[in-house]
UniProtKB/TrEMBL annotation, chain A:
Keyword Nucleotide-binding carried by entry: no
Coiled coil ranges: none
Family: Belongs to the ABC-4 integral membrane protein family. FtsX subfamily.
This protein's name: Cell division protein FtsX
Recorded topology in the membrane: Multi-pass membrane protein
Predominant localisation class: membrane
Highest rank taxon of the organism: Bacteria
All copies of domain ABC3 transporter permease C-terminal, residue ranges: 182-302
Signal peptide span: none
FtsX extracellular domain: residues covered: 63-151
One Gene Ontology cellular component annotation held by this UniProt entry: plasma membrane
Localisation: Cell membrane
Segments passing through the bilayer: 29-50, 179-199, 233-253, 279-299
TrEMBL record, chain B:
Protein name (record): Cell division ATP-binding protein FtsE
Quaternary structure note: Homodimer. Forms a membrane-associated complex with FtsX.
GO MF term set: ATP binding; ATP hydrolysis activity; transmembrane transporter activity
One Pfam family it belongs to: ABC_tran
Membrane spanning stretches: none
Key word Endoplasmic reticulum present: no
Assigned protein family: Belongs to the ABC transporter superfamily.
Subcellular location, record wording: Cell membrane
Membrane topology of this protein: Peripheral membrane protein
Keywords, ordered alphabetically: ATP-binding, Cell cycle, Cell division, Cell membrane, Membrane, Nucleotide-binding
Record domain ABC transporter: where: 2-229
Stored PANTHER family: CELL DIVISION ATP-BINDING PROTEIN FTSE, IMPORT ATP-BINDING PROTEIN
GO cellular component assignments: plasma membrane
Amino acid sequence: MKFSSIKTMPKNVVRDTLKSIERNNLMSAASILSVIAALIILGIFLILTINVSELTKDVESRLELKVFLQSDFTDAQKLTVQQALEDSDMIESVTFESSQEALDKFSASLDQYSSLLSGYNSQNNPMPASFIIRVKDPNDLEAVQTLAMTFKDKGVEYVKYGEEYVQVLVNFSNFTNTLSLVVLVVLSIISIFIIYNTIKLTVFARRREIGIMKYVGATNNYIRSPFILEGTLLGLIGAIVAFLVIRIAYYYVLGLLSGSSFLPVGTTLASPDLVMGKLIYFFLIYGGLIGAIGSIFAIRKFLDV
Amino acid sequence: MIEFKNVTKSYEKNKSDALKNVSLFIDKGEFVFLVGRSGAGKSTFIKLLLREIEPTQGSIFINNYNIANLSKREIPFLRRKMGVVFQDFRLLENKSVFENVAYAMEIIGKSEKQIRKRVPLALDMVGLSHRINHYPHELSGGEQQRVVIARAIINNPTILICDEPTGNLDPETSYEIISILEEINRRGTTIVVVTHDREIVDVMKKRVLTLEDGALTVDDAIGRYGYEV
Ligand SMILES: Nc1ncnc2c1ncn2[C@@H]1O[C@H](COP(=O)(O)OP(=O)(O)OP(=O)(O)O)[C@@H](O)[C@H]1O
Ligand SMILES: [Mg+2]
């Protein structure tokens, strides 16, 4: 008996839900608008976050830490340092670069001016040997540096990592992540509250009906479902509209930027397809969830009795 | 089958009890009137049956099942065994007669085929076939109460509970309603009717339970209206 009730439910429920949205059109519109507003603000932060993290990832992938060895290091020292570095779980990979290799690399990078280095050979090579280290997480750069520095005077001369701006970028990326999270939480609470109030009106308008449903033996889930559906639908409609607005705006801004030299050289905005692909799923799930949660709160009180 | 064992209900601590140590047994297929002054505890009795409220003391059995042990989830299934009719009808204004009755079947998940088959039968039983597509505001009080009765019996309840079903109706219409209830009772449904209608009680010669200030004072097998006004 319980199972058969699920089968026929959707039709009645969908019918009643659509009627209800229509009946409460003003509050429904207000709910949808609030979801749209919340999602547009969220969308802006998300796009910022996605861009910054793409940018950071890009830079991070090129990020190395170099541990330079003293010119008179011994093989034993080299082995100890390499062992210690390889044992650390912060480190992705350790590659040794001998001073000859460093010189060859430098010379190759000079291209047609490589003759400038022609006076140097393996006897008077000024390039130090080094370990090239890739870390797993750029936040660990400093810790790895500290680790390598413990071998100072045990073969290690000094440690050098990326330019200043890398650290700044990493910090900024962390900051935008945190900020987005805060904005997400705050806006979610506001949206849930507005949907909660809309659905409460619906519930109140239909309290007679709810009473009758109970006397005829409707289960709580049956009574709840049209309200949850209504809230979810409001959230989804808001999500779709907000997505379209964001999409149009993003492509517009992209068009403006591509004609200017505003962006730092060598960087690009995250590909719009990538951003929009991520965003639409997030918006739909978020809008639906916010709507459902708001309605569940709204109906809870009326279900007792 | 309904059984009350020493049931007491008090709403507030400092007020006197709405029901006082009430014990009674109503067998399957009985037709019972419940009478008493305003405030005697009649609606309280019905709310207890529907598990809208719980007794302060004592236990209530419906079909041999102690309904105090019901979990919240099980209450709807208890109510599916009982039809309810109220003085104020409680129809949905934006649904037609057919839809109002069909609603009770939709809620418990009956198929559309079953609904299309059974709703006209129930409306025929209460003599309302010709009003099937009308809306509640287009109907007289007596007609509305017929719709409510059709809705209450559509799922074949074992018990039909009526709280002043004729309270808003003229005497002639009241008789029509009561005879519909009698017909339903003849088909095997247990019926409990709360009423203030002295004439109907006296004419029907059914069992009468009388409540006075929350206590069951009279239980007459072939009863007459039990208390003087
Ligand atoms: N929810 C409640 N909270 C507090 N007291 C209540 C509540 N419901 C009923 N009572 C009290 O319980 C007593 C019995 O009420 P009940 O509604 O059962 O009477 P009744 O016999 O149905 O009266 P009527 O014929 O007027 O409908 C009354 O004194 C009433 O004031
Ligand atoms: Mg009453």
